[in-house]
Amino acid sequence: MADIAVIGGGAAGAAAFGELLAQYDAGTVHWIVGQQAPGRGVAYATGDDRHLLNVRASGMGVFHEHAEDFIQHASRQLGQVKGTDFLPRRLFGDFIQAQVGARIDAARRAGRSFRIHPGSAREVLARAEGGYAVRVGADRWLDVSRVVLAIGALSQRPLRTVSTTALAGGAYELDPWRLDRHPKPPRRIVVIGTGLTAVDTLLSAAVRWPHAELIAVSRHGLWPFTHSALPLAPYARQEELNQALLGSCGPAQMLRHVRRAMADAPETDWRSLVDGMRPINALLWQGMSHARRRQFLRHARWIWEAARHRMAPASGEAIHQWQEEGRLQVLASRVLDVDGTSPLQLTLRERATQLVTTIEADLVIQATGLDTAVAYGAHELLAQLLRDGLAVADPLQLGVSAQADGQLVDARGAPLPGLYAIGSLLRGNLWECTAMPEIRAAAHRLAVQLATAGRAGGPRESASEGS
Ligand SMILES: Cc1cc2nc3c(=O)[nH]c(=O)nc-3n(C[C@H](O)[C@H](O)[C@H](O)COP(=O)(O)OP(=O)(O)OC[C@H]3O[C@@H](n4cnc5c(N)ncnc54)[C@H](O)[C@@H]3O)c2cc1C
């Protein structure tokens, strides 16, 4: 039995499934896609064309091959687009579905075996004779030799400071993509968070409720920086900088290297330096001790996220214009408490002055970004995997413990044969692994690895494979 199950119907699952369809011929490839339309996941299910990709069109793709295909696909819908454009995410969702459809057609022609299963994977059990039994929905079982977990980030949990009264009242929205659940126009909306998800939430809310007052609150009150309209020249001494960063002993020294490089090359845009670090980000993270990683998360994560995951220029213009017009206010404050029903009362402590104030809002939307704290989430499958020792939570709650190739490890650090993850679950191991450029490269590598193992004849790899 050399079948494979890919679990998760988002972009990462689509990339893994499509790559396996092209490369894996040792058994059936199953794709368990969850409840939504396969291929789109959280990021590309939006129907709001104000929600833009935060990567230029030329950098977006699903599979390793056909790098230019997204630009051609988008041009057919929008007229001529340029590789430097930041396009609507909806278009990329359409593109993923078309690309997977093409892979399915090719797989049929080649006589490859595959199945697509609507519904959720609810259990993955290790079988005594090797391989796994995967339960889909209530009672459908699949016997496979390998499993690829592509389940994305967890659904947002409410902040600890939100009372049960506030949660029950209906004016606290935990899903920033479900503004449609609020038919009554709110007079004042508070969005908790100032990251990319918060930006999209505000872009939708401002149009949906044109008379609403908008407030965004986060600890530092910092928006993601914007991309430049056109690609920037690379930093001439990036290689040298990257070597120095790789030789550093922690985030503080890394920051000194970056600052020095910026001072030495004042003509270079700092964004080039950050982008030029992309190939070594995982290595930098892996080179840090647990204590250094913790230090980075506590002191530098907020600024790293804003600098590394930047927003499209058009999104930035809208946000900054509303701020200038006074329609949108940004508060650098900690949310101490959210209580009441209608309106909700938010108690905030301002970062600069430590002053505590209370404000009211008709609608509060939590947009605090990726949640990868698997030990605390309510994900049924992950909870079972943790319980059975088939997954171990990353010590910093950044997904699960895994090797560099995505193979999960048990509590002793020993690889779990045939059990892999891709995407957000691997943040603890790779840190930067959630954007499409990284996901498509990882999906390709994994498919090559599994196809090679499949061709070698063994239904299961040894426990040390991929180490
Ligand atoms: C709002 C937003 C915008 C983004 N914009 C960009 C961008 O412009 N460019 C870029 O490169 N990256 C972007 N990203 C990063 C993004 O994370 C990746 O591009 C990619 O969409 C991640 O896909 P995923 O499949 O890992 O996760 P998800 O999109 O979360 O998909 C996971 C899927 O698995 C399903 N699932 C969960 N559990 C199970 C189960 N037990 N059984 C079956 N199915 C299950 C879920 O329902 C979900 O559909 C963005 C992310 C977000 C959230």
UniProtKB/TrEMBL annotation:
Organism of this sequence: Dyella jiangningensis
Top-rank taxon of the source lineage equals Bacteria
Q: Which Pfam families match?
A: NAD_binding_9
The protein here is known as FAD-dependent urate hydroxylase HpyO/Asp monooxygenase CreE-like FAD/NAD(P)-binding domain-containing protein
> Which PANTHER family does this UniProt record tie to the protein?
BLR0577 PROTEIN
Q: Which InterPro entries match?
A: FAD/NAD-bd_sf, HpyO/CreE_NAD-binding, L-asp_N-monooxygenase_NS-form
Q: Indicate the segments forming the FAD-dependent urate hydroxylase HpyO/Asp monooxygenase CreE-like FAD/NAD(P)-binding domain, all copies.
A: 5-153
